[in-house]
Amino acid sequence: MTRHVPLDKTAHRDLRVRTEASAALGDAVMATLTVPNEFRNVQGHFPILFRREPGQGDFVALALFGFENGKNLFLDGARWDARYRPWSLAIQPFLIGRPESGDGPGQVHIDLGHPRIAEGGEGMRVFDEDGRATPFLDAIAERLGALDAGFRASGDFFAALRDHELLEPFTLEVPLDDGSKHSLVGYHIIDEAKLQALDAVTLGRLHAAGHLMPIFMAIASLSQFSALVARKNRARHG
What we know:
It comes from Sphingopyxis panaciterrulae. This protein is about 30% helix and about 25% strand. The protein has seven helices and twelve strands.
């Protein structure tokens, strides 16, 4: 059960957080949310796909870790087998909280019900003995700020994709070494033909708005599919 509370240096003076990778700690996921200002970091490691959640009009961007729900091909026991960990996973169990009105600066909140909350002497300290933020918390706060800024900017990004019809449905049949296949359905990717057909003025506007670079990064990320399929085949033979 989630228990979101504002992080407090007095109430949480001795709080520790487990940072290792583990299915029990929430890492056994097929994909995780990412945001346009993170695409440059993500594209060198994971495919970036877009998905519209059922009953919602807006798209979200996802960094893909596998082809089956609950199966993360980058999770190797207690080891994260990649050189990058997307922000939405790296910040857990922390999150940004805001007043009920939605206005005002964000606060660092923590989910005290999350399995990463450590007991005893395990994990990383959030505050030192004098109540100051540890380097661990400073790094978390930096990622939280970047993720929050990305979420706030994503509305304009997805509106631009929608206005120029730059998302197309995407289905992938994943052939495996044993002859079986996995189907990846319900996702979208950037429509490269429509992107190439845009005139210079439109491309200039997308660039000026900061949308063109993440579009290119999302396209570049699709080259990671072959490595992901190879990883899936190795997992089957392991």
